[in-house]
Design brief:
Helix content: 40-55%
Radius of gyration: 17 Å
Structural class: mainly alpha
Order of helices and strands: HHEHEHE
Distance between the termini: 28 Å
Number of strands: 3
Largest sheet: 3 strands, mixed
Number of domains: 1
């Protein structure tokens, strides 16, 4: 990754109606679908509230495109915090198909703060 390339990415619109966004996402989703096979589920850990990812990905994966139901109503940081807590506790999230799911809902309660972990010394 280079700074000029990163700046070029930053100028792009994340809009499923724009070909410059949609085409690479569609191309890569098809590659993932081919590599995963027809029986594998695919989990979307990004936002499902808008169609910017969902509109393209559901066309490729259909009912196999899943998302954590506990993401409904959460913003980026809250989704990340939830995944961190689940990872630390060893509890897997519950997944449902994106197609036909309720993707908008009330904001859930704030997550409780994580206990601070001491920094490990560097080698």
């Amino acid at each position: 990754m280079t700074v000029p390339r990163l700046k070029r990415y930053a100028r792009g619109d994340v809009d499923a109606k724009k070909r410059s966004y949609r085409q690479p996402l569609l191309r890569d989703a098809k590659l993932i679908a081919q590599a995963a096979g027809e029986t594998s589920d695919v989990v979307l850990l990004g936002s499902v509230a808008s169609g910017k990812y969902v509109d393209v990905l559901v066309k490729v994966f259909g009912e196999r495109l899943l998302f954590p139901i506990s993401f409904v109503g959460r913003g980026d940081m809250s989704r990340g915090g939830l995944m961190l807590r689940c990872s630390r506790s060893g509890v897997e999230l519950d997944y449902v198909p994106v197609a036909g799911a309720v993707r908008h809902g009330p904001r859930p309660e704030k997550l409780p703060p994580l206990p601070r972990r001491p920094l490990e010394p560097r080698p």
